[in-house]
Amino acid sequence: MRSKDLKRSAVFLAALFLLLLWAAAPMAAKEAKYVFLLIGDGMGIPQRIAAEQYAGKTLAMNILPAQGITSTHAADRFITGSAASATAMASGQKTNIGLVGMDPQLRSVKTLAEMAKEKGMKVGIVSSVSIDHATPAAFYAHVPKRGQYYDIDVALASSGFDYFGGGGLKDPANQRDNSKNFQGNALELAKKNGFTVVSDKEDFMALDCSAGKVLASNAWLQNSGALPYDMDARPEDVTLAEFARKGIELLDNDQGFFLMVEGGKIDWACHANDGKASIQDTLAFDQVVAAALDFYEQHPDETLIVVTGDHECGGLTLGFAGTKYATNFEVLSKQSISFRKFTNEILADFKDKGEQATFAAMKPLITKYFGLKFDAAPGDPLGLKSHEAVKIMQAFERSLSGEAEKSSDPETYLLYGGYDPLAVTLTHILNQKAGMAWTSYKHTGVPVTTSAQGVTAEAFNGSYDNTDIALKIMEAMGLDATVRYTAQTEEKAVVAQE
Ligand SMILES: [Zn+2]
User: Fold this and answer.
1) Which pLDDT value is given to residue 119?
2) Is 178 exposed, middle or buried (0-12, 13-18, 19+ CB in 10 A)?
3) 34-316+443-497 falls under which CATH superfamily?
4) Element (H, E) at 307
5) What is the pLDDT of residue 162?
6) Is the CB of residue 101 less than 8 Å from the CB of residue 84?
7) Which of the chain's termini has less CB crowding within 10 Å, N or C?
8) CA of 9 to the centre of ligand 1 (A)
């Protein structure tokens, strides 16, 4: 070969090499710098579709480009609980019912949130139930029993995370937990560790990047330290989406962030078989997805959004024997308050009326709050059939007689599930008129949908386990995608070896 040809082919090869390099460049794996893990507690496929049918429009989470099916079982039980499922999604470790941030051998497993923090990212945890409840706790605490609220509260205060928002703390003063590791009031500990503690809406909305670490809750906690059901919320309450948007604002920085948001009351509504409350909280949770998508629009090459459920709850199905092929979600619009508000406020006041607390006096309240009518014209979708009116009257009598809600009688349990007999009967009948029915007051074992958009979203297509959610996110964040243990556990292991 002549030197001129050699030179020519060298130039050609160099050009080809550069071309290949250029072509390969956009393929190079980009790391997810901004990560959203959005968990609808108790949100299975029926909950997502019921909300969509009721709203009459597609939910943001249902049209994310990647859609997968996720199995949810615990290590020791087919039907999982929130603690085991959240631990799986936070760490990649399958574990037993009730364990928070620990494997079945009680070793503390490192969570996505802790790994993100170590990497220099900011971390936020938001929930509509108490912020020390099993799902949020599984991202920052390591305890063998989910009910160790004081220990969880101390873990929160010591986490070094940047933002907690939503519900309150259940046992900061160690009054119910009676933990042996008492270290003073956990709320005071949080303040000592640099948290600004806020529970006033105006103060909350005014927070900006200068706030430092924030622990924010709504002023009104409806019960068990949780935000009110979305349908019961007043204008002065902070919504789940507002907590999420403020989190995004406070966490946004050059090193990136990890934000977990739980829609926790979807689950609570489904335990009580209150379809409307479940739908309304699913729609409120979808507003969080919308907030994440707004952020994604500004950082499409660096953001990963993952939306999933930890398990289905209530055995909700769309279709009921009494309505055959028909559905009529519109009837649910007539329910104006949740079963919880009805029980705690309307029914509690009513019971104080003494002799005036008759069924005749209750009927207009039932129509007012649930839309159900006792004397409707034929064909009215909200008209009660005689067998339905009888069920309501029987439940009313049992409710008024002060019968213990948590009845141990199996037949009573099947009827009312430990809830107020009248409230749960009203939601059952109204839901059935919509064409929705429930099979359980607990979680079920059906898989859930996981949806994703952004960096490595395509990895969330297909069928996989809830532990894979953590491992896929670790990979997206450029972390070692294996289950790891916390320094605390490693220390213990060394001591054990010695
Ligand atoms: Zn759950």
Assistant:
1) 96
2) exposed
3) Alkaline Phosphatase, subunit A (3.40.720.10)
4) strand 303-309
5) 98
6) no
7) C
8) 64
CA of 307 to the centre of ligand 1 (A): 14
pLDDT tens readout for residues 85-106 = 999 999 999 999 999 999 999 9
Spatial separation of the C-alpha atoms in residues 185 and 142, rounded to whole Å = 19
Inter-axis angle of helices 45-55 and 275-298, nearest 10:
90
CA 129: distance to chain centroid?
8
Q: How many helices (H) and strands (E) does the chain have?
A: 19, 14
Q: How far away, in angstroms, is 442 Cα from ligand 1 center? A: 10
User: Which residues are close to ligand 1, an ion, with C-beta < 5 A?
Assistant: 41, 82, 267, 310
Distance, CA of 266 to CA of 273 (rounded, Å): 10
Determine if residue 166 is left, alpha or beta; phi over 0 gives left, psi from -120 to 50 gives alpha, anything else beta.
Answer: left
Structure confidence by residue, pLDDT tens digits, 275-293 = 999 999 999 999 999 999 9
What's phi and psi for 410, nearest 5 deg? Answer: -60, -35
Distance 43 CA to ligand 1 centre (A): 8
Question: What is the 86 CA–ligand 1 centroid distance (Å)?
Answer: 8
What spacing in Å lies between the alpha carbon of 416 and ligand 1's midpoint? 21
Q: Give the whole-angstrom CA distance, residue 175 versus residue 171.
A: 6
This prediction has a pTM of 0.92
CA distance 444 to 313: 6
Give the max Cα distance, the chain.
Answer: 113
Judge contact between 396 and 415, C-beta under 8 A.
no
CATH 3.40.720.10 occupies which residues in the chain?
34-316+443-497
Check whether 487 has a pLDDT greater than 90: no
Confidence (pLDDT) at 21 = 55
Q: How do beta strands 195-198 and 122-127 pair?
A: unpaired
Q: Tell how strand 34-40 and strand 303-309 pair up.
A: parallel
User: Does 498 have pLDDT greater than 50?
Assistant: no
